């Protein structure tokens, strides 16, 4: 399972889901689904999101083993 800190990074930077979505070229619903763990991003999308936050992919996204 992939966990993420998108919501925390958005709050830190004062970005709405819509603003982040516009910066990375996806719909706002995609960002919401990512934050809720309903959707795993492609590598390109993960890279673009991390780039917006000036962070590494590993800082924003972590992989956890299913229990």
- The CATH architecture designation is Orthogonal Bundle
Weakly predicted, low-confidence segments: none
Helical coverage, percent range:
55-70%
Characterize the overall form.
globular
Rg, rounded, reads 11 Å
Structure commentary:
The protein has 67 residues and is mainly alpha-helical. The chain has a single domain (2-59), classed as Orthogonal Bundle (434 Repressor (Amino-terminal Domain)). The protein has helices spanning 6-13, 17-24, 28-35, 43-52, 57-60, and strands at residues 2-4, 61-63. The chain has a two-stranded antiparallel ribbon with strand order 1-2. The radius of gyration is 11 Å and the shape is globular. The mean pLDDT is 95.
Features:
67 residues; mainly alpha; 5 helices; 434 Repressor (Amino-terminal Domain)
């Amino acid at each position: 399972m992939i966990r993420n800190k998108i919501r925390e990074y958005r709050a830190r930077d004062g970005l709405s889901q819509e603003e982040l979505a516009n910066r990375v070229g996806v719909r706002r619903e995609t960002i919401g689904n990512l934050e809720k763990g309903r959707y795993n991003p492609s590598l390109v999308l993960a890279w673009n999101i991390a780039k917006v936050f000036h962070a590494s992919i590993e800082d924003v996204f972590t992989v956890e083993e299913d229990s």
